[in-house]
């Protein structure tokens, strides 16, 4: 508790943003619009499916933008700019290796199973495939993860309010939580999605001008090359040894490609209900498949307006330059990179737009966590294990109560997040615990019909235990709880933990499957690839769609683009 108190005190006593009445007015108008969308969306909510899945009625472009905006939250803006300031261009791997390929895979291969099976959540898919054991483990672990990650978004949202108004951080936490709670509890997923679409454009409007002004300030890209510290190697994405914390270049690349690019990336994008929920709200299977593919295109170019400003912030902001060189940073951390850049470069008016963009990103992230949590809590935990067979309105009410409860808990988990100087370290640790073993179970169960229900839950538990063990043995993945027995730290420890979770999950699942009985094949139709008729995986008219509405063709274009970007910025 002492560490938390110190962190909060230093946050309250550090720099302020010099906003004026015009900036406050822009922010106030934005808040009013956000709340207005919540009230309007409430009119469309009459059933639990309306509240939790928007009635499965939204077009692909809406769910596609919401898909990416839900991820464009605190971690994406603050965390990736912090990584850019600290590690440089190697941070692009979180996008071009650690996101886009998995998003395309989700749209082409996995969404037909999610959408076609008619499930209301990812844990419900687990229940149908593996039974209640794996379902309960998945639902509980997912719920805990969302409460912890919502705390990250809330902490950074409250930090903006603190910097803007000078309120104590605990007051800022409560106020920020109340705003997100208001529109999420009113309109459910529809309110969250419509706000996410709005927030996407507000975020772009905030970050693009900031990037242009920052580049002008430093003398263009050549100025970045000349001035970046500790040297031009910070502008090379491979082998990324600073990012991974792995000194050997070969093993650093292995950690990035396998730990981040395969296990963590596919584990997050293909099994994380926060993202999948947006695609499941689409009006057809074809639209659901296109949603993550559409989201992949803006995802490719976000590094240019997030990472590059972080790199420049470490050049032009005195406190960050001092932090990077080991001097007196005056209490700031890398998490402050984007805020410090805004403070030093943006005039009033533009500062208000930038603040609205940051607030938009943090609210989008937190609302995504909360809306996914309330669905899993209501359908997969409360309805399945506590109170069954009630009328639909009862579970709608439970969902709204769960939204309130999750927001209150997020205030507490925000205090945990406040202990981390670089929130990406914390987040990747959580992903290693929760997403990596889940992906192993999913991918094995979807493509191996022999895998049994007992293997499903035992593999999840063993994989999670392996990730926790690596984190405890590393130097700082769990803060004071880590004992430093192995020479890994930061995000490299998270990559290794994720790899261990995946490998252990696979090994345990295979071993247990060989000594237990599988489900009858007729119960696995629509859940296992080899047993599902191919015509069940596409809409009847998908073959007649133009190329720009074809999930497979769009995914092919996206894959080519991301390969080109990796080659250009190697």
Distance between the termini: 43 Å
Write down the CATH topology.
Answer: Sodium/glucose cotransporter
Number of helices: 24
Based on secondary structure, the structural category is mainly alpha
Task: Profile the largest sheet.
Answer: none
Uncertain segments of ≥5 residues (pLDDT<50)? 1-13
Residue fraction in strands: under 5%
Text of the CATH class: Mainly Alpha
- Provide the CATH superfamily: Sodium/glucose cotransporter
Radius of gyration: 23 Å
Order of helices and strands: HHHHHHHHHHHHHHHHHHHHHHHH
- Named at the architecture level, the CATH assignment is Up-down Bundle
* Overall residue-averaged pLDDT value: 82
- List how many beta strands DSSP finds: 0
Whole-number total of structural domains: 1
User: What form results from the Cα inertia axes?
Assistant: globular
**Helix percentage range:** over 70%
Membrane topology: Multi-pass membrane protein
GO molecular function: D-glucose:sodium symporter activity
Family: Belongs to the sodium:solute symporter (SSF) (TC 2.A.21) family.
Keywords: Membrane, Transmembrane, Transmembrane helix
């Amino acid at each position: 508790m002492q560490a938390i108190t110190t962190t909060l005190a230093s946050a309250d006593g550090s720099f302020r943003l010099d906003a004026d009445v015009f900036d406050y007015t822009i922010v106030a108008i934005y808040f009013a619009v956000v709340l207005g969308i919540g009230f309007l969306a409430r009119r469309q909510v009459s059933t639990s499916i309306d509240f939790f899945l928007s009635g499965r009625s939204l077009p692909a472009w809406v769910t596609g933008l919401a898909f990416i905006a839900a991820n464009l939250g605190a971690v994406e803006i603050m965390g990736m700019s912090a990584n850019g300031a600290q590690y440089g261009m190697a941070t692009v791997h979180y996008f071009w290796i650690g996101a886009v390929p998995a998003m395309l895979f989700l749209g082409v291969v996995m969404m037909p199973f999610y959408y076609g099976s008619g499930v209301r959540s990812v844990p419900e898919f687990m229940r149908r495939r593996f039974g209640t054991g794996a379902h309960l483990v998945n639902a509980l672990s997912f719920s805990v993860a969302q409460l912890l990650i919502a705390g990250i978004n809330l902490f950074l949202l409250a930090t903006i309010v603190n910097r803007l108004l000078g309120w104590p951080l605990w007051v800022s936490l409560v106020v920020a939580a109340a705003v997100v709670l208001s529109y999420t509890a009113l309109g459910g997923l529809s309110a969250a999605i419509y706000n996410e679409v709005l927030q996407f454009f507000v975020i772009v409007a905030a970050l693009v001008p900031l990037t242009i002004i920052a580049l002008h300030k430093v003398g263009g890209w050549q100025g970045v090359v000349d001035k970046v510290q500790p040297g031009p190697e910070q502008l090379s994405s491979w082998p990324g040894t600073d990012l991974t914390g792995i000194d050997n270049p070969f093993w650093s690349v292995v950690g990035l490609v396998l730990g981040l690019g395969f296990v963590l990336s596919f584990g997050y994008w293909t099994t994380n209900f926060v993202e999948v929920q947006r695609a499941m709200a689409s009006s057809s299977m074809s639209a659901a498949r296109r949603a993550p593919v559409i989201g992949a295109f803006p995802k490719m170019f976000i590094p240019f307006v997030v990472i590059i400003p972080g790199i420049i912030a470490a050049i032009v902001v005195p406190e960050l330059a001092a932090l990077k060189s080991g001097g007196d940073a005056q209490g700031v951390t890398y998490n402050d990179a984007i805020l410090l850049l805004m403070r030093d470069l943006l005039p009033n008016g533009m500062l208000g737009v930038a603040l609205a963009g940051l607030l938009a990103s943090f609210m989008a992230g937190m609302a995504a966590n909360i809306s996914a949590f309330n669905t899993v809590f209501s359908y997969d935990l409360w309805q399945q294990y506590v109170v069954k067979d009630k009328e639909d309105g009862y579970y709608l009410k439970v969902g709204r109560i769960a939204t309130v409860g999750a927001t209150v808990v997020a205030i507490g988990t925000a205090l945990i997040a406040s202990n981390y100087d670089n929130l990406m370290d914390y987040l990747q640790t959580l992903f290693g615990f929760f997403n990596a073993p889940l992906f192993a179970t999913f991918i094995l169960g979807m493509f191996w019909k022999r895998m049994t229900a007992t293997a499903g839950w035992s593999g999840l538990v063993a994989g999670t235990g392996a990730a926790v063990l690596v984190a405890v043995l590393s130097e700082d993945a769990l803060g004071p709880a880590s004992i430093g027995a192995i020479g890994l730290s930061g995000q490299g420890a998270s990559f290794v933990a994720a790899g261990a979770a995946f490998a252990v999950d696979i090994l345990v699942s295979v071993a247990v499957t060989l000594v237990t009985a599988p489900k009858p094949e007729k119960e696995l139709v629509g859940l296992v690839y080899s047993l599902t008729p191919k015509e069940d995986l596409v809409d009847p008219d998908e073959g007649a769609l133009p190329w720009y509405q074809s999930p497979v063709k769009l995914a092919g274009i996206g894959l080519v683009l991301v390969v080109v970007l990796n080659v250009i910025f190697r």
